Amino acid sequence: MGDDAAGRLIVLSGPSGAGKSTVVRRLLQKCDLPLKLSVSATTRSPREGELDGQHYFFLSDEEFQNRRDAGEFLECKEVFGLGYWYGTLREQVTTGLQAGNWVILEIDVQGALSLMDDNSLSPITLFIHPGGSEELERRLRMRGTETEDVISARLETAEKEMQHMHRYQFEVINGSVDLAVDEICQILKDQKEKRPCSKS
Length: 200
Description:
The protein has 200 residues and is an alpha/beta fold. It has one domain (3-191): Rossmann fold. 40% of the residues lie in helices and 20% in strands. It has helices at residues 20-30, 61-69, 90-98, 109-116, 133-143, 148-162, 177-193; strands at residues 8-13, 35-37, 41-42, 57-58, 73-79, 84-89, 102-106, 124-129, 170-173. The strands form two sheets. The protein has a five-stranded parallel sheet with strand order 2-7-1-8-9, sandwiched between helices. Helix 1 (20-30) crosses helix 7 (177-193).
């Protein structure tokens, strides 16, 4: 396979409430690169309207742990307090890359940091945030879906996550979804010109 046909791995993360999912959805529609969103696996039950294999791969606890033990995950973690596991299946990523796609992982900071340490992946890493903790709190409250305790926990987590922002190659402030999407698309196109050196 020639270098031009090879896909790239894109890791996008940031605090809860930063608007990552909205940005990724719009990016897939607007950016004219062969982008493909990697579908994560989880042990939680599907929410209304969620389809297996499209929104998540919904696995039983036993199946998730069997796959974890078999080394089938690039990264995975248990969400403390909820008891659910989430993870990125290695096959999802490698199949996409081999097909020439630019595979997007929308994952949390902990998962992103573990992938940055894997030299074989050479991911393009982007950290997206709304510009400050006050704006983040405003957005979380606007959702109207979380209790005060959950909002406090999310803000505390966000503060810790922001401390790792310097580990990412690119920082994107999501003040406007369209501007953030245009900025990310341009970053990716610039990276297309700077492919990582192929290993001999």
